[in-house]
Amino acid sequence: MGNQEVLAQKIASYFEAFELNARSGDRDFFLRVTEGIDSLQTLYFNLYGDHPDRANQFDQLLATVFQAYQQRADTLKDRDLEKLAQGNWFLSNKLAGMSLYVDRFCGKLSEMESKLPYLEDLGINFLHLMPLFESPEGESDGGYAVSDFRKVSKRFGSLEDLAKLMHTLHLKEMNVMLDIVLNHTSDRHEWAKKAKSGDKHYQDYFYMYDNRWIPNQFEESMPEIFPESSPGNFTWSEECQKWVMTVFHSYQWDLNYRNPQVLREMLDTLFFYANLGVDLLRIDAPAFIWKQTGTSCQNLPQAHTILQLIKQAVHMASPGMALLGEAIVAPADIMAYFGRGEQQGKECDFAYNATQMALQWDMLASGETKVMLQAQPILDQKPFGCSWIAYTRCHDDIGLGYDDYMIAQAGKDPYLHRRFLKEYFTGKTLGSPAKGALFSSNPKTGDARISGTLASLCGLEKALDENDPGQLELSIQKILMMQAHSFFLGGLPMIFYGDEIGYTNDYSYRSDPAKNYDNRWMHRPLFDWGKAAKIHEFGSIEAQIYAGTQRLLSIRKKLAAVGDYKNISWMGPHNIHIAGYLRSLGPQRIFVVFNFSSQFQSMTWYAFKEHGLIPHQLWDHWNEEIIPVGLDHEYFHLAPYEFRILEVMPKD
Ligand code: GLC
C-alpha cells in the first residue's frame, strides 16, 4: 500500500474514532485534512525522522488535531468558514488594533466590557490582550513566564471572564489576539517543578545538564538577550543540581522541542486558545524554539519547520485563527517567517514589521530617509497574502536590528550612526527632545535597545517639563506623524495603549522590586481614567492626540488601497528628508508623504509623476483640501514633521 492510501485509511479511522462525518457535517474538515496530511507528515518527519517512536508520536499529534476540531464550538466553526470565504480577511484596511495589559488598563477582565466604548470610539476593532495566564507575581516578565497555560491568573479574573469577554467582543465584531509562549515556561510551571524534583520524563522537556560541558559549547555562539539583568543562557538549579537553559530571564526555562511530546503538548495548548475563539495568535519568540550548539540558536531551519507544521495543523482544525510570529530579528530573517520556497505563504500569516518600526525612529532622529529606503528591497519581498503588524511602539524595547550594510549604503558609519541613535533617544545629543533609556546594554558588544513611550521619545515629556508650548505642539505633530506612517504603510496597525492620549514615561517601576531590573516598565502605563476623560476637554493634549489618532484610523478605514495587498511603491528620494509611498488598488491611488525633518522641506511635483501616472489634482484627506498638482519644476512643500494623505482625484 502506498503512503497516500495509508494516510487515507488513517483519516478514515480517525473520523470513525472521533465520531465525525466526512460526508456531511464535517466535510470541510475532511477536505482540509485530506489536502494537508501529507505535508503535515513530511514536516513532522523532517523534525523527528530519527526518533525511535516517530510513527506513534505522529499519530498522537494527529489525534490532537482531530480532538481540537471535535471540541471546537459550532459558532467558531461557522466563523472559520466565513473567514475562509472572505479570503485573507486580515489584510483589510478596516482593521485597527490595540495592545493592552488588562490589569494596568482597567483592573480585571470583567471591567473590560465597560471600557469598550472608549476603544470603539477610537476606532479599535482588534484587541491584543497581553498575557493573561498564570505567572508568578514577582517573576512574570509581564506575563511571559507562564506557570499554567490554561488558568487565567487571579490578577485578571477567571477563564469564564475571558470566555465571556471574547464572546462580547465577537458580538461587537471585534477580533481578539492572545499570546502563546512557546519557547519557555516559568520555572514554577508543573513541568519544571517535576523536573526539579528529579522526574526524568519532565527533565526531558527542558535543556538540562549535569555540568558546564555542553552549556559552555552553547555559550560560545549564543548571544545574550538580557545581558544586564540575566547574563548568560544557563541557570544553575539547586533543586536538581543541573544547569538549565534559560535564554531570557533565569526563571524562564527553555522548552526542548527535540522531544516530540513537548511539541504535542504545546500544540494542544495552542488549540485550547484557538477554541476560546482567538482570531490571531501571537506566537511569542518563535525564533528561539530550536537550539543547536555552534549556532546562535535563533532562526534555525527546524524552528521554521515547527511553525509550518503548526500552521498546517491550525489550518485543518481552526482555520479562522491566523498566526503572528513575533520574530524580532534582522530584516532578511524576519521575511523567512512567511515561509520560503515551497512553504512560501504557509508559515506565519503575520510578522511584526520591526524593521520599519525601528527605521521610523531612525528617520525621526536623523531627519533622513536614506537608511530606511535601503531596507525596502527586502521588506518588499513579503509574499502576497501575508501581512505585517504595523506599529510605532509596543510593550518591548525598540531594537535597532536592521543591518549594518543598510546604514553603510546610506553613506554612514554603522557604529557611529547607532551610537548617535542611542544618544539621541536618551536625550544626550544636543537639541534632542527625546527622553528614553537604554535597555539591555551589552558592554561586550556595544549593543543596546531603547525604552520609552511614544510621547516621551517624541519630546512631549521634555516639553512639559520645560513648559515649552512650541516644543509641545511639535511633539504632538511628531506623535501623529509616527502613527500615520505606520497606519498607512500596509499591515494591521497595532496601537500600544496609552499612546492614543500621549502617556509619558512612568518611573514608578524603579521602586518595585518585581520590575526595577527591567526598564521596559517605563512605557507600560498604569492607565488613569481621569486622564482619559480629558479627551473631552477641547484643546487638551489628550484631546489633540486622541482626536488625531481617531481621525487617522477613520481615514484608513475609508481607503481600500491602504489594505495590505502587496500594493506599495516608495517614492524616489527627491528630498532625503521626505518619505513617501504610493498605495494603489484598482483605480485608487494614494500618496502618503512625511517630512521627518525639523525644517520646512520641498520637492518638485515631478516626484508624484514617476509611477506611470500624471495626477492633476489631489485630495488631502488629512487637511481636507484639494491640491492642484504643479508643473514638474514647481515645488510641493511640507512644514516640519508635517504629513499628508493625498488621493489622486479624477481629472475634472
Ligand atoms: C517576547 C516578549 C517579551 C518577552 C520575551 C520573552 O519578546 O514580547 O516581552 O520578554 O518574549 O518571553
Would you write up a description of this structure?
The protein is an alpha/beta fold. Among the domains are: 65 residues, Oligo-1,6-glucosidase, Domain 2 (Oligo-1,6-glucosidase, domain 2); 81 residues, Golgi alpha-mannosidase II (Immunoglobulin-like, Sandwich), CATH 2.60.40.1180. It contains 22 helices and 25 strands. The strands form seven sheets. An eight-stranded parallel barrel has the order 1-2-5-11-12-13-14-17, surrounded by five helices. A six-stranded antiparallel sheet has the order 18-19-20-25-22-23, with helices on one face. It is globular. The relative contact order is 0.09. The model has no long low-confidence stretch (mean pLDDT 97). Bound molecules: alpha-D-glucopyranose. Alpha-D-glucopyranose binds next to loops.
Total number of beta strands: 25
CATH architecture of the domain at 568-648: Sandwich
- Terminal-residue CA separation: 70 Å
Task: Give the oligomeric state.
Answer: single chain
Bound molecules: alpha-D-glucopyranose
Q: What would you say about this model in short?
A:
With 652 residues, the chain is an alpha/beta fold. It contains 22 helices and 25 strands.
Descriptive tags:
single chain, 652 residues, alpha/beta, Oligo-1,6-glucosidase, domain 2, Immunoglobulin-like, 8-stranded parallel barrel, 6-stranded antiparallel β-sheet, 25 strands, 17% strand, binds alpha-D-glucopyranose
List the helices and strands and how they pair.
Blueprint: H1 3-17, H2 27-48, H3 54-71, H4 74-86, E1 97-100, H5 102-106, H6 109-122, E2 126-129, E3 133-134, E4 148-152, H7 159-171, E5 175-181, E6 184-186, H8 190-196, H9 200-203, E7 208-209, H10 213-221, E8 234-237, E9 242-245, E10 252-254, H11 260-274, E11 280-284, H12 301-317, E12 322-325, H13 331-335, E13 350-352, H14 354-366, H15 370-379, E14 387-390, H16 404-409, H17 414-425, E15 437-442, E16 447-451, H18 454-457, H19 460-465, H20 469-488, E17 492-496, H21 529-533, H22 541-558, E18 568-570, E19 578-585, E20 588-595, E21 601-604, E22 617-620, E23 625-628, E24 635-638, E25 643-649
Parallel strand pairs: 1-2, 1-17, 2-5, 5-11, 11-12, 12-13, 13-14, 14-17
Antiparallel strand pairs: 3-4, 6-10, 7-9, 8-9, 15-16, 18-19, 19-20, 20-25, 21-24, 22-23, 22-25
Helix pairs in contact: 1-2, 2-12, 3-11, 3-12, 6-7, 11-12, 14-15, 14-20, 20-22
The chain binds alpha-D-glucopyranose.
